[in-house]
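Internal ticket #5521
Category: modeling
Description: The requester needs a full-assembly model to guide mutagenesis choices. All entity lines are attached below as received. Residue total reported by intake: 507.
Assigned to: D.W.
Attached entities:
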Amino acid sequence: MSKILLVEDDEIMPKIVARILPTSEYELDHVSNGKEAFEKLESTNYGYDLIITDIMMPYANGFEILSRVKSQPRPIPVIIVSNAGNEDMIMEGFKLGADDFLKKPIIPAELLIRVKRLLMKNK
Amino acid sequence: MFDIPTPAFLDPVFSTFREAPLAIRLAMIFIIIAISITLLAYFSILRSRFRGHQRKKRLDYLLPKIDNLIIDEILANPEVAAGTPADRIQLNLDGFQELPLHKKWARQATTNRIIHFRRNVRGNAGQLLRSLYIQLELSKDTMKQMKSSKWARKVRALTEFIDMDIPVADVTILPLTNSRNRELRAAARHAYIKLSKNEPFKFFDVVTDPLLMWDQVELFRIITTTEDISIPNFARWITYSSNKSVVSFCLKLIVHYNQLPAVPAVIKLLDTKDHYLRADAINCLGKLRVPDVEDRLVSMFTSQPLQCQIEILKAIGRISSGRQVDFLKQEFLHSTNFDLRKAAAKSLVKNDWVASQVLQELLDTADRESLLILKHCMNPLIKY
C-alpha cells in the first residue's frame, strides 16, 4: 500500500482526493498547511511514497515543502495541485523539482492516473 | 397639556429632574441617551453573534451531509468513472430531498457547496455538479437575487452564474455593465465575457464611462484567462469607438493577441489629436514590431510631445530593424532631456546586432553622464 501525504488548506479538496484514491491501494494522510507538513514529514522520517501539495498555503508554501523534500537523500515524488495559472509559478515548481503539475479544477481520473504513473516510476 | 401618566416609583426621579438647574437637566438627558445607545449597541452585537452561532451550528450539521451526498452522487457515480457524458446520467436526488431545502439558508449553503466542489473538479464531474444545481432548482434563487435592488446580491448572483456556467440573457447583464457601482460593473463585465457565447465583447459598444485603469487590469485578466471565447479583431473598436479608454484598452489586447491584421487601424490612430492615445498607438506598433512604420515615426518625431517621442524611441528599439541607428545616436548625443537620452540608449542597445560598433565608439568617447546611461542600459539585469 502506498503512503501519500496531501498538503492542502482547502476544506473540500481532501474529501475529493480521498474519494479518488481508493483506500485499498493508498493510505492518505492530510495536513492543512506547510508547518504541519514539515512536522508530519519529520515525525515519519520522510516515510511517504508521494506528496500532493497546493502552492499557496499558510505558514510555509508548496515551494518550501518541495525544496525541503527534494534536498533529502531519498527525494519523494511531488505533484503540485494548484489553481495558480501563472506560467512563472509553474516553471518555478518544475525548477525546484516537482514531478508533475495539475491545475485546479482537476479531472478526478487524471489525478488518479498521474498518481499511479509516478508511483510506478519510482518503485 | 402634555400630562403623560408615569408610574409612581418614577415620581422622585421626575421631581429631581424638574427641580434641577438647566445644565444638570441637559447632562441627565445626555446620560440617558448615551446609556440607551450603548445598551442598544450591545444588544445588537449580542443578537448578531447569537445568530452567527446558530448559523454555524446549523451549517456544522448540514455541510457534512451535503458533502457526502455530492461525493456519493457525483464523484463516486460509476457512470462518471465509466466516461458516460454528463447529460446522459440520471441523478438520484432522493438524498437531497431529505435536506431542508425548503429553507433559504439551506438552499444557499447547498449552492455554495456545489460551487466549491466545482472549483476543485471539472470534466464530467464538473458538468454533473452543474446538472445537480439546475435539477435542485437552485438557479431560481440566483435569478431572484439578480432582481434584488441591492448591488451586493446582484454581484453574488452573477458570480454564481459564472461559476455554474449558466447562460443569462444579454438584456439582463448588458445594462449592469454600465452600472455606477464599481463592483457591480466589474462583475457584470466579467459575467458578460464569460457567459455570452456569441459576442462577449459587445459591451465595448455600449460602455459610456471611461474604463478605469483598475477596470482594465481586471478585464485584461478575465479576457486572457477565459477559455473558449472567440477573440474578435479589436481594430473594430479602434476605428469606431468614441470612448478613448476602450480604444486604449483594445490596443493592449491587440498587442497581447499579436493581431497583425489590426495594424492599418492602429497606424490611422497616429493622426489622432489626443497625444495620450497617439502614444498608446506608437507603443502598440512597437510591440507588434511593424518595420514599415519606422520611417513614419522618425519623420513625425520632432513635432511630437515628450510622451510620444519617448514611445517612438522605444518602438524603434523594439522593432530593431537596424535602419535607424544614426537617428538613435543623434538623439542620444544631442537631446537635452534625460528620459529621451535613456530611451535612445536603450534602443541602441536593442539594435546592437548592427550598432555594436556605434555603441563601442560612444562608450569610448562618452562623458560621465552618458557613460552612466549607456552602462545602465547595457546591464541585462536592469529592465527599465
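Resolution: model delivered.
Comment from assignee: Chain B has a mean pLDDT of 90.
Ticket closed.
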